[in-house]
Amino acid sequence: MYKIKEHYFLSKRFRTLYPVVIDIETSGFDSTIHALLEIAVITLKMNSLGLLEQETTLHCHIKPFTGSIIDPNAIAFNGIDPFNPLRGAISECEALHSIFQLINAGIQKQKCSKSIIVAHNAIFDFNFLMAAITRNKIKNNPFHPFTIFDTATLSGLAVGQTVLARACKTIGLKFDNNQAHSALYDTKKTANLFCEIVNRWKKLGGWPPTQ
């Protein structure tokens, strides 16, 4: 069985936190009343040079929870038909359990203590995810309760852009606006952006820090 060299555990990079890139598509802006419709997560790893790479991807279409409100403006924006049977949607509870199983395996493999959400304008995704976890009474939440990595902030620092598409293009990554606002596409691009920023910082000599 392949063993990761101690030097390349993610636990050595982010204070034992295991970064998981997430994007969520919803039926509105209020996490307490609007439905979580789609979620994608990408786990990360370090290669033999100590650079971040994408590892595993999980993508779920989700059924609106009972009593949730569907804002037609949100649906027009993201192009999701929540009640289309061809979506293959599953319940929030099923999706969360699948995601947590993947994350917990990564935490153990990388010798981390908790997971940390990486997202673009991350407080939005964080609030919807925490609301879904609470709503489904799921215990043993693997995510840090308040610390997040926001790529909007990081890209503002790195390249002076906070919009995902503009940040990607400015840093040299391709971005197709026609595919935007799909949870899977946006998660992949956010993961690319996060890895690029972290890896550039390392290549510039910013990591590991000198005393």
From TrEMBL:
Active site: H181 (proton donor/acceptor)
Cofactor: Mg(2+)
Tagged with keyword Repeat: no
Cofactor comment: Binds two Mg(2+) per subunit. The active form of the enzyme binds two Mg(2+) ions in its active site. The first Mg(2+) forms only one salt bridge with the protein.
Domain of life: Bacteria
Keyword hit for Transmembrane: no
Protein name: Ribonuclease T
Source species taxonomy: Bacteria, Pseudomonadati, Pseudomonadota, Gammaproteobacteria, Enterobacterales
Gene: rnt
